[in-house]
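Writing this down once: the sequence line spells out the residues, with the fold written below as integer tokens. I am pasting one below:
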Amino acid sequence: MAELALFATAFLAATILPFSSEVAFVAALKNDMPAFNAMLFASSGNILAIVLNYYLGYFLYEKTKTKLFKSKIGKKAFTYGHNYGYFALALSWLPLIGDPLTLVAGLVRLEFVWFVLIAGSLRVLRYYFLTQIF
């Protein structure tokens, strides 16, 4: 049950919703969830959510673009995504700007396989580093 809660939290946190999955991840580790299980469920939830973000950007291009340009962070993310593409994905693990960057990746039509490899692996690495700290 705790694993599913961690999965859901990681999924929702990787959408545009303003909260962090790291707190839930560390809490799971502190409550004796095996590190492998915590990484598996948090990473899976996070990666599925960034895939959703990518496809929202891809398929809902006009509406998503309009919404992004209403916010300062959204404008900046779109500009970086358009100008720097895959290099911008190196920042996709960061709070605040990371999740909009995954949406922008779909907007600017980055190659899906490379998107998942870059952004997904950074999400896994973030949780791995947390297991090393806690």
Q: What stands out?
A: The mean pLDDT is 91. The radius of gyration is 15 Å. The chain has seven helices and no strands. The first helix runs from residue 2 to 13.
